[in-house]
Amino acid sequence: MEFYKIIAVAILTAILCVFLKSVKSEFFIPILITGGVIVLLFSVEYLARTFNFFQELSSYGAIDGQIFKIVIKITLIAYLIEFAGSLIEDFGLKSLAEKIIFSGKVLLFCMSIPIFEAIAKIITNFLV
Fold first, then answer.
1. In the list 9, 30, 68, 86, which could disulfide-bond 54, CB 3.0-4.6 Å?
2. Which string of DSSP letters, residue by residue, matches 81-124?
3. How far is 72 from 119, CA to CA, in rounded Å?
């Protein structure tokens, strides 16, 4: 029940941030970042399990293991970009956050090109 811990840390961080923003605003940003990092650290074990699952799945040989690695990288980068964009938006810099998220989408699109190539090869092999 890891999500209880994540919810508890998130709520505690939110309460501390709201309280400290009005009392001691210089602690707002460090508390916000620390809470976000703790929430991310709770998910590391689950990410490791997911990586192992995809590694086992790719070992069956039907799909190239590099494709799974690219998909995992794309997924992780998407989550991290969204997290960073949200964090920067919390700092009151919405326009910068939108630019980071847009740049991340462009990066993810470029990273997905090998997947499109693999799909094209599979379709070509079926047609021939």
1. 68
2. HHHHHHHHHHTT-HHHHHHHHHHHHHHHHHHTHHHHHHHHHHHH
3. 17
- 6-15, 26-35, 50-59, 114-123: least confident range: 50-59
- Assess whether 34 and 76 both reside in one domain: no
63: pLDDT confidence band, cut at 50, 70 and 90? low
- Work out the percent of the chain whose per-residue pLDDT is above 90: 9
pLDDT at 25 over 70: yes
72 shares a domain with 122: yes
Supply φ then ψ for residue 63, to 5 degrees.
-125, 140
Q: How far apart are CA 68 and CA 89, in angstroms?
A: 31
CA distance 48 to 93: 33
